[in-house]
Amino acid sequence: MVKHSNEPVLWSLFSAGGVFAAFVIPVHLFLLGLAFPLGWIPAPGYQYLHALVTSPLTRIYVFALCFLALFHWAHRFRYMLYDGLQIKHLNELIFVCCYGGAIFGTALAGYLLWTFH
Amino acid sequence: MAETISLEVLRYSPEHDAEPSFQRYDVPVHKDWVVLDALNYIKDKVDGSLTFRWSCRMGICGSCGMMVNGEPKLTCATFLSDYARDGSPVRVQPLRYFPVIRDLVVEITDFMSKLQSVKPWLIRGDEKPVSEGEYVQTPDQLDRYKQFSMCINCLLCYAACPVYGLDPVFIGPAAIALAQRYNMDSRDEGAHERMDVLAQHEGIWGCTFVGECTQVCPKHVDPAGAIQQYKLTATIERFKSFLLPRGAK
Amino acid sequence: MSDTRPSARYTEYHPRWYRTHVSTWWWLARWPYLRFILREISSVFVAWFVVVLLLQIRALSHGPDAYARLEHWLQNPGIVLLNLIALFFVVFHAITWFNLTPRAMVVRLRGKRVPDRWIVSANYAAWAAVSLVVAWFLVRS
Question: What ipTM, to 2 d.p.?
Answer without folding.
Answer: 0.93
